[in-house]
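Hello K.,

You asked for the raw outputs rather than the summary table, so here they are, unedited. I folded two proteins back to back in the same session to keep the settings identical. This is the first:
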Amino acid sequence: MQSKSQNIDDQVLAPVSEQQRINSIDVLRGVALLGILLMNIVGMALPDPAYWDPSGYGGDTGWNLRVFFTTSLLFEGTMRGIFSMLFGAGVILFTARKEAEGAGLELANAWYKRTIWLIVFGLLHAYILIWPGEILYFYGIVGMFIFPVRHVSAQKLIGFSIFLFVVIAALNINESRKAGKLYENWVAAGEIMEQGGTLTEDQRFDLEAWNKKVDELKPGMETRERVISNMRGGYFSAVKVMAPFSQFMQTTFFFRHGFMDVLSMMLLGMGLFKLGVLHGKRKAGLYGLMVLVGYGVGITVNWFETTSYIHDNFSVLSYYRNQRTYDLGRLFTTMGHVGLVMLCTKTSFLGFMKRALAAVGRMALTNYIMHTVIATTIFGIFKQYGHWQRYQLYYLVFSVWTFQLIMSPIWLRHFRFGPLEWIWRWLTYGKRPAFRKNPLSPHQ
């Protein structure tokens, strides 16, 4: 016979019902889900340097350059930022009602199972579906750290988030400074060699170190062609060439960049959720201020970064210089996006579009993985990897958007969750939730 506490846990440790969902958050998640494909599609379809260096592949003139400029100005890092904020808000959504209704230790157990399974999904996404740029692994690990601070005040959460942004900026400034010094030493070593002089051991080290940075950010044609050949050479050939990059992203890159990047945004999202900002119920003036200040600062910073980068012919030195203000522009532009979406949720304009975006957001995990499956099919199985120009990729992006905006609401008329959301909940709670909606129930 089950104990009373076990009965309580069985009742409260269950997925959030449709009536308990917050529509503004679903809409915002839908926007982020669709928007992130604007950035990811480049890494999915073109060799590595194309993402940050359009001269490397995909084209850097005409419409190709216009697309690079627009995405860098408005979307670079911002959709990932919104996703991270919403995941942070998700820990409160996941726990608040359950704790109020009597959930105990099993609540922590459910949360940590949820994040562990997210790590597993991330590993499968990276190594089986061959997408090194995936984010689920990051969220699973960082998600383990935010559970204990779910009761911290909004002011402290936002304050610590800002502190992390300052730390990130300081690290980037220092890295940019070191890169600038290394470049100066490289130039000096080159002049010595031209004059027939002999380099010291330190000068040879600096020469090799700068050349290594250039090789990493601007790999030669031979390296790029090798990647393209492997990506078109069949599934196992593609896994072989991408697995080392996935390993780098989930180890070195994660511990140097990803952890604080994601944690800072998650804490910010938790704080904004506690203040009611993400509910879409604060005054329109606040959201208008977020738009004006967010875009005023963020887009201005992004504009100076992007134009200087283009004028410097996408040089490695310019890339490192832009890292000094990258998170400043990204953070403010992200807040501008949040303010704009919240303003839209407060109006009755384009209600059908908001309903479609909310459905996309409710199926975010399924739709996110679907992006990779579609890209892997087209660029891997059909061997289109490296063939398309940058601007052509957005024909596919808009087609995927259209499909998901149409199909997500249709799916949710018949099912409670997306298929991957359903599996994730099953693994989290240890019991299979109802999948199909009951057509006889007026509340479903």
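The second followed immediately with the same parameters:
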Amino acid sequence: MKKIIVGLSGGVDSAVAAFLLKEAGYDVEAIFMKNWNKDDDCPAEEDYKDALMVAETIEIPLHSVNFAKEYWDNVFKIFLDEYSIGRTPNPDVLCNKEIKFKAFLDYCLDLGADQVATGHYAKIIESSEGFELHKGDDGKKDQSYFLYTLNQNTLSKSVFPLASLEKSEIRAIAKDQKLSVYNKKDSTGICFIGERDFKTFLKTYLPANSGSIVKTDGTIIGKHDGLMYYTLGQRQGLGIGGGHGDLNEPWYVSDKSMGKNELIAVQGKNHPDLYHTSLTASQINWISGNPPKNEHTISAKIRYRSADAHCHMEQLSKTEVKVTFNQPQFAIAPGQSVVFYDGTQCLGGGIIDTRNHE
């Protein structure tokens, strides 16, 4: 009997994933990962209790493992480094790469697991050319964007039981099976920040250096609290008072000048400085192991919630690409991930370094 170990987070998705595998006849065990040791604001204790209740209901053993050191070294330090140089990182991508499909996967294989399973909304398809990663059927919940760092080995050792389910179906299954988390609110944001104010959290680890908010011509129109607190395309929280420009047009962050410690803002969502036609990205990973053969059908997402955008991809080196979009894209942010698709198939991706107006 195939042994599958499930990463049980204390949420409804992983709970139903575990139930479905047990129902399908696999030898199922579960592991709760604790990735943050610093304080009590990350609700790990409550999540562990929920995971324990689920494991008892499904009647599977639950183990607990602490990956806090791995998380600190391989996720959180990079998170801080990126913010300190004015970029906007995505810790969910790093967590999947370094923790869930590396530290956790290796740990489970050492325990004798044949495969690991998570509650991700994504689909693994085995084809004649190997393993493919595809979008989950629930388009609103699809998480393939966060999984582009996976490879043939990790996909061969992974199972995503929720691939073909809608969120409503998952909650219905959980309720029907009397799983205590059936109506638990989905977690949002970053675990180690929890419900705290983002600025307050970041200030604990990085020195805040306030400065001027300026227009493109250098006119000072406000004060910022520190460049690390703002992301490109941001509209809320700029605090630019009246008397600057058209009162009916909102202000947006268009750029950062790290050397001058200035935040550059423009008015109106249609301002050309908010749109770029091309980008370069590095740390490229191709899930198949090779760049795509047919570049004419490629689309790309520049953030999790953005729509797939048609583009042309040029390989600059083994780990660097240039991407040119058919239509200019709003607020391309260095530090975020650009992820490539061919239809529903996720091909891979990388970290955005520069954006251009070409």
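Residues 91-110 form the longest helix (20 residues).

Happy to rerun anything if the numbers look odd on your end.

Regards,
P.
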